[in-house]
Amino acid sequence: MFRAEPPRSEFDRWFSLEARFGVAAPTGLVGIAAELSFIPQLGLGCGLGGNVVGAEYACWLCVRPIIGRHRALTLSSGFSTAPFTQNEATQAGVFGIFTGAFSSMREGPGPNERVFEQAYWLNTDLGYESRHDAFQFRVFGGVAALMNPSDGVEQYSSSPDAVRADPPMSAMAYVGVGLGFTE
Question: Cα Rg for the chain, rounded, in angstroms?
């Protein structure tokens, strides 16, 4: 006569808001992101944040294969834009933490920087998402492809030993984590 309702998936919630932290991520070093889920397996999100050069803006489509009541994998793809300076510390994306440190140990100046007033990126990442009640945790990693490499302008150094800037990069790796709530 009376039937218990099956347990509701945490992914039936339609809205999420999260703080994002990343290295070379679409919403920068620190940002905020919101996502609307039309169905539990599909969402549309936008976010804003900042890197050391300026503000970053991003929008993406997220496909979410659900692997349990509280867990899902994510595949997101979208666009982002931000001012960008390509140098030895940034051209490798997340790996620039290591490559930039090693290159700073050389004698003499490094190559000139390449400055983008506004860089446009195509981002694709894989991730893991966990939801418990209203709390949401996300971790992701991906690749950003530079869509306007010819817009970078070489910024010349005053050092007589300066080396020409590296050619415009085509892609870089990024990682990030998000903490937030769902409704």
Answer: 20
CA distance 68 to 75: 16
70-96 pLDDT, tens digit per residue, is: 999 999 999 999 999 988 778 777 777
- Full residue range of the structural domain in which residue 139 is found: 15-182
pTM, rounded to two decimals = 0.87
Q: What secondary structure letter does DSSP report for 28?
A: B
Closest CA to 47 of 166, 128, 151, 140: 140
CA–CA gap between residue 83 and residue 155 (Å, rounded)? 14
Of the ranges 36-40, 44-48, 153-157, the best mean pLDDT one = 44-48
CATH number at residue 58: 2.40.160.20
In a domain, 40, yes or no: yes
Residue 1 forms part of a structural domain: no
Give the separation between CA 37 and CA 34, rounded to whole angstroms. 10
Number of domains in the chain: 1
Domain membership flag for residue 19: yes
Mean pLDDT of 15-23: 97
- Does residue 3 lie within any of the structural domains? no
Which of 93, 105, 109, 66 has its CA nearest to residue 170? 93
Round to whole Å and give the CA distance between 30 and 59.
16
